[in-house]
Amino acid sequence: MGSFKVATFNINGIRSRLPALLEWLGRERPDVVCLQELKAPDDVFPVDAISKAGYGAVWHGQKAWNGVAILARGEAPLLSRKGLPDDPDPSQSRYIEAVISGVVIGCIYLPNGNPQPGPKFDYKLAWFQRLTEHADDLLKAKHPVILAGDYNVVPTDADIYNPRSWRKDALLQPETRKHYRRLLESGWVDSLGSLFPDQPVYTFWDYFRQHWQRDAGLRIDHLLLSPSLSERLQDGGVDRWVRAQAKASDHAPAWISLSV
């Protein structure tokens, strides 16, 4: 039985970290990759280099901020959507959706929301509500779906090295966690959470205060599965070696494998 490997990676600047991305693709060979924080407009997305690495791509860029992309090894993703329905600010490139090998892939870069309270946190919650509504529609369509990306949500206190110093952060607020919990209650499966229920799995280590060196991490990158796909979940993990590289992103790629 074969496997279908899907990864999500907040690359934090695709132009400056393209060599690291290409090294990771060559070493780990995921079938699908969701990228966030491209921080590049559409016309400078490195499509030629990614194509030479064996991947087709669709992307939704933005100058200096945000930006999302979906890569597929050996095939061209079939673009189905850029942006969430009814988004009042489509200038922020935070969602892209495509079909790959019969699976709908949604790539998410949810707003950070800091400082809170304030307009940025209000925007985060409003965006999260639109995502939840779109996720409900995807479930109703009965297609196999993966919603992967940087959710900027620490689901529980077990998903952070020490919640005390982060209590006022938007990532841990009760309203933020409520939206995430609402997705799970509607039927979506937190793949890494279900694979590792009793041990911390971190995907992000802040650049400050030696967070990486102390393994003071957070789990904010998630791969949520529709119910039919969750039955095919085999394995998962985090490619921590990527975070240990020089001039690395503050995130490491998180991945899962599904039976085919």
From TrEMBL:
<dbReference type="Pfam" id="PF03372">
    <property type="entry name" value="Exo_endo_phos"/>
</dbReference>
<keyword id="KW-0378">Hydrolase</keyword>
<dbReference type="InterPro" id="IPR004808">
    <property type="entry name" value="AP_endonuc_1"/>
</dbReference>
<dbReference type="InterPro" id="IPR020847">
    <property type="entry name" value="AP_endonuclease_F1_BS"/>
</dbReference>
<protein>
    <submittedName>
        <fullName>Nuclease</fullName>
    </submittedName>
</protein>
<comment type="similarity">
    <text>Belongs to the DNA repair enzymes AP/ExoA family.</text>
</comment>
<keyword id="KW-0460">Magnesium</keyword>
<dbReference type="InterPro" id="IPR005135">
    <property type="entry name" value="Endo/exonuclease/phosphatase"/>
</dbReference>
<keyword id="KW-0479">Metal-binding</keyword>
<dbReference type="InterPro" id="IPR036691">
    <property type="entry name" value="Endo/exonu/phosph_ase_sf"/>
</dbReference>
<dbReference type="InterPro" id="IPR037493">
    <property type="entry name" value="ExoIII-like"/>
</dbReference>
<feature type="domain" description="Endonuclease/exonuclease/phosphatase">
    <location>
        <begin position="7"/>
        <end position="251"/>
    </location>
</feature>
